[in-house]
Amino acid sequence: MPVISFANSKGGSGKSTSALVIACELAEAADVILIDADPRRPLAAWADLSDPPARLRVISSGGERTIQDEIDQAAAEVPFVLVDLEGMASQLATFAMSASDLVIVPAQEQHQDAQAAIDTLGAVKRAGRAARREIPAAVLLTRTRAAVKSRTARHIGEQLRGLEGVHVIDSELVERDAFAALFSSGGGLRQLDPREVNGIDKAIANASAISEEVIAILRRKQGAAA
Ligand SMILES: Nc1ncnc2c1ncn2[C@@H]1O[C@H](COP(=O)(O)OP(=O)(O)OP(=O)(O)O)[C@@H](O)[C@H]1O
Ligand SMILES: [Mg+2]
After folding, report:
1. CA–CA separation, 53 and 70 (whole Å)
2. Could you give the angle at the alpha carbon of 211 between the alpha carbons of 111 and 140, nearest 5°?
3. What CA–CA distance (Å, rounded) separates 168 from 137?
4. Is any atom of ligand 1 closer than 6 Å to the C-beta of 171?
């Protein structure tokens, strides 16, 4: 049922990684469809590397003409639909946002990412206005340092959290080998080989904390809408 899109007009902000990590985590307990709506197909390529987790299916979008049908059909089939968008503003992204119950805006703690995150939140708001409803959105900080943050990183996080009407997810997608390794090995975090990749347990704990928070946001929004 819930549809979650991952959008940020800045390339490399962590959209595909966040979408994949959250999709795998949700697929531990529910059926999930992950729609790869990036023409470069990073997630379809991931799914070709090795078998995805049993309850996760990846489909490639046919583009802006078909995305709305693809989302509707997927939402009728499974409890969670996630949509990974390409790193630029597009009609396709607007259509996907308009069909979403939550737009997650991944952003690194860097000036350009934060600016693009604010632009993207504006695009979500406009898509909501056109659709005559409020589309919930939340920023997810990505590739953050597990230990001590730099002053710039801290400042950017504080700035985003201080903006009125902007929700920043408390948990952050920390910079970890395990998250990057997913795209070269295929499968989910639990399928990674601990002899080859460090810190898998910590990555799983991180993924699970983020997913729980995402579910809590969806529940709150559902409650508010009811
Ligand atoms: N938490 C993380 N830990 C380690 N590496 C990460 C993490 N998040 C992202 N990366 C790496 O950063 C790069 C960009 O991430 P990703 O592909 O998820 O960004 P994107 O927003 O989807 O990019 P694009 O706009 O090109 O689609 C990738 O090489 C990815 O492996
Ligand atoms: Mg991507």
Report:
1. 21
2. 10
3. 9
4. no
Give which of 28, 27, 22 is closest to 56, Cα–Cα.
Answer: 27
* Ligand 1 contact via 41 beta carbon (within 6 Å): no
Check pLDDT > 80 for residue 225: no
- For 138-159, what is each residue's pLDDT tens digit? 999 999 998 888 999 999 999 9
Q: Is 14 helix (H, G, I), strand (E, B) or coil?
A: coil
Placement of tokens 């409650």 in the chain? 223
Residue 172 near ligand 1, beta carbon < 6 Å: no
Interval between CA 129 and ligand 2 midpoint (Å): 26
Ion ligand 2: residues, Cβ under 5 Å: 15-16
Q: What share of the chain is helix, strand, coil (3-state, %, to 5)?
A: 50, 15, 35
CB 92 within 8 A of CB 15: no
Q: Go through the domains of the chain in sequence order and give each one's CATH number.
A: 3-225 (3.40.50.300)
Query: Cα separations (Å) of 141 from 16, 30, 153, 174, 187?
Result: 13, 25, 10, 8, 23
Residue 211 has pLDDT above 70, yes or no: yes
% of the chain at pLDDT higher than 70: 99
